[in-house]
TrEMBL record:
Ranges for region Disordered: 182-204
Pfam name, any one: AstE_AspA_cat
Biased composition, class Basic and acidic residues, residue ranges: 182-201
Protein name: Peptidase
Family that this chain belongs to: Belongs to the peptidase M14 family.
Keywords for the protein's UniProt record, in alphabetical order: Hydrolase, Metal-binding, Zinc
Gene3D superfamilies: Zn peptidases
Cofactor(s) for this UniProt protein: Zn(2+)
Domain Peptidase M14, residue spans: 34-311
């Protein structure tokens, strides 16, 4: 075994080196307690937007004893099939707070600015069970953002895929709003290693905002246009001593690339020419929660403006 890889014996669930079975998954789920309200934080804000947007209920997910979660999208009020169409997604990982609140803030303050120019479809909280529990996974210990695949075992991923399927080829833009947090190293990577019966070691958390482009079609000028606008709001993550961010080569200021479709990531669910995943760092001493929300909004607006100028 590589001496730099350690089995996370400190993780309280499971046997080191052995993947979880149903018992361990049930034990993990029982340990997850709701600490905030999807109804109060998200649904109440959506209700207030019914006059200014089209609110679309696209699915409801029944998570047994934890209840049923209605899933909503918000559409441009002046939707016009002759116009190009953009997709904004947030809350794929429920614990990544500014993805959810940034998406809602964009709708509240800026969506109408694009009426008559581009249709915008916003899905602000893909994973409400995880939002309430400040968790990465769904209740079955499945990561939605590795399961945007055919016959997905993740209900949240499958619901979004089914919803956008009729229009998947119409999108010119998709921006997916995420965060990279200190808990990625302290909780979520160790939990994943324990679940899968593998070793892990800390990857380090970059201090600042960065983007993940799609290796299949990285669109570097598009990514840099987003970075330029976000940099007016918050700082951009530097490369580490290896020239990397979270283990991936930095290809431009604040930008790395992933093979989104191969990895089953949300950013790969459309054939949009312009695709990007934001990564905000909310644990930075140099960023406030509002600044994180503002960074997400700046990224969405920059992406839309670039697509309008170039599509």
């Amino acid at each position: 075994m590589n001496q730099h890889v350690t089995i996370p014996r400190f993780y309280p669930i499971g046997t080191p080196g052995q993947p979880w079975g149903e018992h361990e998954r049930a034990q993990w789920r029982a340990s997850q307690k709701a600490s905030r309200s999807y109804a109060a934080d998200v649904l109440a804000r959506i209700e207030k937007l019914r006059d200014s947007t089209d609110v679309v209920a696209y699915a409801a997910i029944d998570h047994g004893p934890d209840g049923s979660y209605p899933l909503y999208a918000l559409r441009s009020k002046q939707w016009d099939d002759a116009l190009p169409t953009a997709l904004v997604t947030g809350g794929v990982h429920g614990y990544e707070t500014s993805g959810v609140h940034g998406a809602l803030q964009f709708v509240e303050r800026h969506l109408a600015d694009y009426d008559g120019r581009i249709n915008v479809l916003v899905v602000p909280c893909v994973s409400p069970w995880a939002y309430e529990r400040v968790q990465r996974w769904n209740p079955h210990a499945i990561d939605p953002n590795r399961n945007f695949v055919a016959d997905s075992p993740c209900a949240e991923s499958a619901a979004l895929l089914n919803f956008i399927a009729p229009m998947a080829d119409r999108f010119v833009l998709h921006i997916d709003l995420h965060e990279t947090t200190d808990s990625d190293d302290s909780e979520f990577r160790p939990a994943k290693a324990a679940r899968d019966g593998k070793g892990t070691e800390p990857e380090g958390i970059p201090d600042g905002f960065y983007l993940v482009g799609d290796t299949e079609d990285p669109q570097p000028a598009f990514q840099q246009a987003i970075i330029a606008e976000v940099e007016k709001v918050t700082h951009i993550a530097p490369a580490d001593e290896k020239g990397e961010i979270i283990g991936s080569k930095v290809v431009a200021h604040g930008v790395i690339n992933y093979p989104c479709r191969d990895l089953g990531l949300c950013a790969g669910i459309t054939r949009a020419k312009y695709r990007s995943t934001t990564e905000v760092y909310p644990d930075s001493p140099r960023a406030t929660p509002q600044q994180c929300n503002d960074a997400q909004v700046a990224a969405v607006r920059a992406a839309l403006d670039y697509a309008l100028a170039h599509c």
